[in-house]
């Protein structure tokens, strides 16, 4: 097969890496042949001078010149072929790299899609569990919270207590959910992605500091621990004092 045949477009699309290997091999052969031709051209003047001073015939000298001219022509063609082949290899490598990156993006998109679908079931369970938690908390929680715009603490509703429990559980399990609000640019548009913290309020319950760390950043606790400290233990204490029937305990339980 002629070296020049590798410059012809492939009859059908195939593996790009295989095409690169074939063109690279052809380029190596082309360069080797061109070096041999250039060596012949470089030796021409020296050989011609020797022949002029020898008994060589004019036909012999003309044959040498013709051989050199053919070598020059062949070398010139191979030079152009080398330039074209190098460009084709570069384009093929660029195509292969773009295909590699595209495949990586596709794999990432598929993995994210599957992971996002996997989230649907636990999120639905979380929503149902949260609703059940709100329903289980008595209307009179005995806890208070601080509202913006209110000077005095306000009674905490069951939703407030449930949100504090859920917020603690989420933060304890996945603190990265509570990163600051981020602006994401898509093209010419900016989209604000609110942090979970702005959606699930971690209410400052006036009579209860989550984790018992007053005046500092609260320690975030798993849901059972936060729920026990926030409302379960106080409710059970009320139940105990009611059962004991001690007057001063009853007053404290109200």
Task: Using brief descriptors, characterize the structure shown.
rod-shaped; single chain; mainly alpha; 254 residues
Question: What is the element string, with H for helices and E for strands?
Answer: HHEEHEEHH
What is the mean pLDDT? 78
**What structural category do the secondary elements indicate?**
mainly alpha
- As residue ranges, the low-confidence spans are 206-216
From the spread of the alpha carbons, the general shape counts as rod-shaped
Q: Please, could you describe this protein's structure?
A:
This protein has five helices and four strands. The chain is mainly alpha-helical. The strands form two sheets. The chain has a two-stranded antiparallel sheet with strand order 1-2. Strands 3-4 form a two-stranded antiparallel sheet. The protein has helices at 16-52, 58-136, 158-173, 223-244, 247-253; strands at residues 144-145, 154-155, 182-186, 189-193.
Gist of the model:
The protein is mainly alpha-helical and 254 residues long. The protein has helices spanning 16-52, 58-136, 158-173, 223-244, 247-253, and strands spanning 144-145, 154-155, 182-186, 189-193. Helix 2 (58-136) runs antiparallel to helix 3 and helix 3 (158-173) packs across helix 4 (223-244).
């Amino acid at each position: 097969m002629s070296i020049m045949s590798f410059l012809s477009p492939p009859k059908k699309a195939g593996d790009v890496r295989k095409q690169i290997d074939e063109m690279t091999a052809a380029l190596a052969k082309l360069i080797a042949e061109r070096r041999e031709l250039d060596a012949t051209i470089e030796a021409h003047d020296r050989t011609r001078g020797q022949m002029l001073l020898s008994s060589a015939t004019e036909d012999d000298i003309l044959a040498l010149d013709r051989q050199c001219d053919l070598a020059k022509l062949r070398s010139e063609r191979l030079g152009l072929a080398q330039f074209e082949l190098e460009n084709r290899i570069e384009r093929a490598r660029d195509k292969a790299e773009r295909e590699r990156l595209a495949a990586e993006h596709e794999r990432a998109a598929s993995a994210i899609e599957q992971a996002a679908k996997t989230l649907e079931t636990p999120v639905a369970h979380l929503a149902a569990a949260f609703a059940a938690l709100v329903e289980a908390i008595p209307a009179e929680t005995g806890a208070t919270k601080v509202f913006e715009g209110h000077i005095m603490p306000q009674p905490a509703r069951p939703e407030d207590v449930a949100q504090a429990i859920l917020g603690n559980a989420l933060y304890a399990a996945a603190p990265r959910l509570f990163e600051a609000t981020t602006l994401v640019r898509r093209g010419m548009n900016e989209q604000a992605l609110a942090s979970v913290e702005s959606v699930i309020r971690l209410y400052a319950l006036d009579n209860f500091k989550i984790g018992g760390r007053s005046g500092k950043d609260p320690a975030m606790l798993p849901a059972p621990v936060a729920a026990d400290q926030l409302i379960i233990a106080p409710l059970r204490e009320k139940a105990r004092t009611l059962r004991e029937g001690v007057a001063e305990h009853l007053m404290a339980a109200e």
